[in-house]
Amino acid sequence: AQTVTQSQPEMSVQEAETVTLSCTYDTSESDYYLFWYKQPPSRQMILVIRQEAYKQQNATENRFSVNFQKAAKSFSLKISDSQLGDAAMYFCARVQGGSEKLVFGKGTKLTVNP
Amino acid sequence: DAGVIQSPRHEVTEMGQEVTLRCKPISGHNSLFWYRQTMMRGLELLIYFNNNVPIDDSGMPEDRFSAKMPNASFSTLKIQPSEPRDSAVYFCASTLWGIQETQYFGPGTRLLVL
After folding, report:
1. Count of pairs with CB atoms under 8 A, one residue in A, one in B
2. A107 to chain B: nearest residue by CA?
3. Looking at residue A62, which CATH number applies to its domain?
4. Which of A47, A100, A105 faces B97 most closely, judged by CB atoms?
5. What is the pLDDT of residues A54-105, one digit of tens each?
6. What was the pLDDT predicted at A40?
7. Were both Cys, which of A80, A97, B15, B17 would link to A29 (CB 3.0–4.6 Å)?
8. Secondary structure of chain B as H, E, C letters
9. Which residue of A47, A101, A105 is in closest CB contact with B102?
10. Which pLDDT tens digit goes with each residue over B20-73?
11. Which structural domain range is residue A80 located in?
């Protein structure tokens, strides 16, 4: 089975500092999509950022950016100027080739310390 | 624009009872997904529909689970009879397949089977 791996079950960061969450994935395809979702205590799944594998440029959304290394099958999320509201579970996910299936990692719990 | 709507938000029931979860996808979306989230297994895809037709139900745990999508605006996930191990958060998500690959999630239904 093709997998998505998040090797950091928990991370913490000081408010206003930068943190990077790691994600690696397994695929034999050349075209696919990668996502980071945020799940705060409310349990709502919120899209943070998406990356299209055929695009070389790393996606950016305000304070959130990714480091996409296609050859290494790595897709890390960088959160700059961390805010208390960034505290949540973060899930990395990949659209499985040939279908619409999202495959999720196990998640990283991010704590933001004031 | 309204997001994905799920009802009920919380459900407490007794073992053996029938449970019906409901979902209204984002207007215009043509694909709908049902996920289950538990601590042990994380986020799992149960079934998804494209243009109201079930495409892949390989994630449905057993015959006690069934899902329908009678029209583009409504889907149900039914568990009959329910068991304590079905306790989980159930998410519905939708997307406009072929145009965008991002899935947008509803707020989830938290199910507790006693």
Report:
1. 45
2. B42
3. 2.60.40.10
4. A100
5. 888 898 889 999 999 999 999 999 999 999 999 999 999 998 766 778 899 9
6. 95
7. A97
8. CCCCEEECCEEEECCCCCEEEEEECCCCCCEEEEEEEECCCEEEEEEEEECCEEEECCCCCCCCEEEEEEECCEEEEEECCCCHHHCEEEEEEEECCCCCCCCEECCCEEEEEC
9. A47
10. 999 999 999 999 999 999 999 899 999 999 999 999 999 998 899 999 999 999
11. 4-113
